[in-house]
Amino acid sequence: MTEWDLRKLQILRTLRERGTVTATAETLHMTPSAVSQQLTNLARQLGVPLLEAQGRRVRLTDAARLVLRHTEPVFEQLERADAALAAHAQGETGEVRVGAFSTAVPALVVPAVRSLRATHPGVIVRVREAEAAEACDLLSAGEVDLALSLAAEAPGAADPRFTRLPLLADPLDVALPPDHPRATAPELTLTDLAAEPWIFGGSGPWSDITRRACESAGFSPHQGHSASGWTAILAMVEAGMGVALVPRMAAAGREGVVMRRLGADRPVRHVVAAVRKGAEAGAAVGRVMEALQVAAGPADWDTRA
Predict the structure, then answer these.
(1) Which of 74, 113, 134, 296 is the most buried (most CB within 10 A)?
(2) What tens digit of pLDDT does each residue of 278-300 get?
(3) Residue 255, Cα to own-chain centre: how many angstroms?
């Protein structure tokens, strides 16, 4: 099979466009002798004459025109490859795999994806829902490129393997049945609800968060019911079966329950994004991180319903 030299073919192509060896040399920042030598070597490689004398000038042979006719699509494809690489390097294209815990998907990831579709449609986000700790395990294993997690479950800030980006402090509000005596109280504290049946998971981070918050308020919560999904928890609260601490991200847009904000000492959970160290320099990953920051908006979500 003939060995094709793209550099030499580019010189031949430029000669066709510029008309003379001197003009070709100027265009390609070469000397005329170097242009002539390269074209002589190309003719030897291909085994056909490429140039013929025409007075004091040269012109392309029929064989040279045949060669260029068949290699033109190659140059066109290379131009497309150059454009694609430039777009990739500038963060205009690329695929980013995101692992995110359940409430972060509708509250942060979906708004970020919508924004990217409008501003950088070539950046494709692949979402994988996972528990907060599992998202970080997926990141460590290389199965996702970016993990949305809770600070308590994410790698420590000093971990040399990862870069963390704080996104927001998500307040924990109290979900009450609509007819609860405290639903319209002027002020509300966790202590006011110490005797209530509480609804939270039997184990895991959310169980720990609820228990710690109540214990910090001076009481140990009585677990009336156990559930880990927010749909189930809020449905039980709506039915008057108990009360629950609910992240503001999870309660956004929910109806059928009364969400009450606690005072200045309200508990919060901190949401972070994490990538493997060095990956933040990737343009597409950077675009996604920027979109997530915009979606996070106010640092503590106090302005959100």
Answers:
(1) 296
(2) 887 778 888 999 999 999 986 44
(3) 31
pTM beyond 0.70: no
Q: How many residues does the chain have?
A: 305
114, 240 contact by CB (below 8 A): no
Helix axes 283-296, 110-119, angle to 10 degrees: 120
Alpha-carbon distances, residue 224 vs 128, 207, 239, 246 (angstroms) = 32, 13, 13, 16
DSSP the chain: -PPP-HHHHHHHHHHHHH-SHHHHHHHHT--HHHHHHHHHHHHHHHTS--EEEETTEEEE-HHHHHHHHHHHHHHHHHHHHHHHHHHHHTTSEEEEEEEE-TTHIIIIIHHHHHHHHHH-TEEEEEEEE--HHHHHHHHHTTS-SEEEEETTTSPPTT-TTEEEEEEEEEEEEEEE-TT-TTTT-S---GGGGTTSEEE--SSSHHHHHHHHHHHHTT-PPEEEE---SHHHHHHHHHTTS-BEEEEHHHHTT--SSEEE---TT--EEEEEEEEETTGGGSHHHHHHHHHHHHHH-STT-TT--
Give the pLDDT confidence score for residue 111 in this predicted structure.
96
Across the strands, what pairs with 199?
225
